[in-house]
Every structure is written in C-alpha cells, then in structure tokens.
Amino acid sequence: MDLSTTYLGFRLSNPLMPGASPMADEMDWVKRLEDAGSAAIVLRSLFEEQITREQQGMIHHMEVTSESFAEAISYFPRPDDFIFGPEEYLNHVRKVKQAVKVPVIASLNGTTPESWLQQAKLIQQAGADALELNVYYVATNPAETGLVVEKRTVEVARLVKKNVTIPVAVKLSPFFSSLAHFAHELDLVGVDGLVLFNRFYQPDIDIEALEVAPVLHLSDSMELPLRLRWLAILSGHVRASLAVSGGVHTVGDVVKSVMAGAHGVQLVSALIAHGPRHVRTLVHELTEWMEKHENASLEQMQASMSLQRCPDPAAFERANYMKVLQSLRV
Ligand SMILES: Cc1cc2nc3c(=O)[nH]c(=O)nc-3n(C[C@H](O)[C@H](O)[C@H](O)COP(=O)(O)O)c2cc1C
Ligand 1 site: residues with CB under 6 angstroms? Predict the structure, then answer.
C-alpha cells in the first residue's frame, strides 16, 4: 500500500503532519510525533508583531492617537507571553532540525510587506526545510477594498519567496470574496503550497464579567466540509500543492481530504485530544481503508474522485444549495 505523497516538493511517506501549534514546542513531543509516523513537523508561528516590536521597540503600523494607541497596545500579548522570541525561535528550528529526519516547516504569521519578512531568510539559515506563512487578518477597515487586502497579501508572499529558496506555503482563511482568483494570484508569485484554512478564534462576551473574552475551542469534523469544498475547487487549477488544516480527526476525514485533493493533511485538535500516537492510529486505519477499497495509492484515490469533478463548480454549488434547501419537508 503506497501512502506516499508529494507536498511542497517533498516526497513524504504519508500525508499526515502536526499543524502549526505548540505541539512541536518540546523536543519530547517532536520525537514522539516523528516516531508515530508524522511525515513532517510544522512549528508554531513567529508573529510579525514580535519581530517589529523588537526592531522598533513598539508595535508597528499603528498611526492612532496616543490614547487609543495605549488601549490598542493593551490588547496585545506581552513579549513574555510568547513561548519563543525571534532569536529563540531560530534556536528552536535548529534543535528540531537536528532531532528529526522528516522535513521541518517553520511558520511566520503576519500581514504587511515590511522588514520583518527578512526573518524568513534567518529561518531558512537556521535549517528550516520550508516555511508556512499565515496571513491571518480580519478586514475591519471600511475604507479598504477586498482587492487591497488581496494585493497586500500577495505582496507579502512575493517578498517571502524573494527572501528564501526553500518552499513557501501560504495558510489562508476562507474569507476572500474570490478565493479561486486569489489562489491563482498566489500561484503566479510562485507560492509552493496553500494551506486551507486558518481557523478564526472569535472572541466571546462574558456576560457576568462584562468583558470580551478570548476563547479557544478545539475543532471537530464539522469544520472539514468547508475545506473539502475548496480543496476540490482548487485541485488541478493551481500549481501549488494543497494541505488541509481544520477539522481532520478520523480516518474518514483523512480519506475525504485526500480524495478532494489534499497532498498534506495537518492535524492539531485531534492530536491535542489524543496525543501524538493518533498519527500512528490514522496511518494504520488509512492503510486498512485503502486495502478494503482496493486503492493501491493516494494518487489512485485522488484520480477516482477527480473523474467526478464538475466542470462548472459554481453551477454545482448552486445546484447543491437548492437541492439541500428543498430536501427538508415539515
Ligand atoms: C493551541 C493552538 C495554537 C495554534 N497556533 C498556531 C500558530 O502558531 N500558527 C498557525 O498558523 N496556526 C496555529 N494554530 C491553528 C492550527 O494550526 C490549525 O490551523 C487549527 O487548529 C485547525 O486545525 P485543527 O482542526 O486540526 O485543530 C493553533 C491552534 C491551536 C489549537
């Protein structure tokens, strides 16, 4: 049974890997993840704000009055809230790289095409095999068009590509008005992979304390269909390889992701819930599933699904939408 896949140009023994998270903070976990069969290790992100603050002694890009500036600053984590500062992050990349044989994917998280992006070069020099760029951004400015947001993001990706020779993946959110076009633009600047998708951690309101409170809910498999839809739409239409992130918990989730076009399958919530050994369980169950369904390779699984691909996904989406709404009778 051939579980191998090509992601970001790396031939991997299987598509499973931990997604960017604290899971690879400790070397013990890194080793356990590799031993359990993780085909790559994705590190947590280093944030733009961490780098710009070190560079300038302040948060960059906040042209606001001093009162609101002070308030805005108070929302941000303090430097010692971050596990790794920029220098420590580079040391961590070196340590993880020495400890494992599988590719190590570092992560940068930011939204502006500024000097912090030079950090990408340092991360490459520290030994990272690839870089994931998380462009987490909620467009809240009424004066800013979607096109401006997209252009800025493409520019960030272009600059990262310019600074490094290792493969670069961009981790996207689903909230772009024309995601297929945006993915195509990223393809044009040479991005090597797209990770679908970021999760947005919406703050909640604590109605007793009368406070806005950050909340971290782990995902469940309900989050996967959004990813499957976009994997299927983009698959075969972008040069970049595709990874799924969000809602992969069971072997069924892995099979669906691969069928929809994922070359890499990232797991975070499932590994937080079950520990690194869950990778081994999933590899085992995936092998069993493929045996049972007479699929010799992941490529074969993908090919069987691509035969069913609709030539007009927008028409398919509308048809599906109408069918679903008509399916319930009271
Ligand atoms: C505790 C925690 C920390 C995370 N840290 C990062 C991070 O540093 N960078 C990043 O791109 N994503 C980060 N994520 C998001 C995950 O990589 C992933 O996209 C998300 O959890 C969805 O995948 P899942 O459904 O498998 O959990 C984090 C998620 C969790 C739960």
Answer: 19-22, 44-45, 107, 109, 134, 171, 198-199, 219, 223, 245-248, 267-270
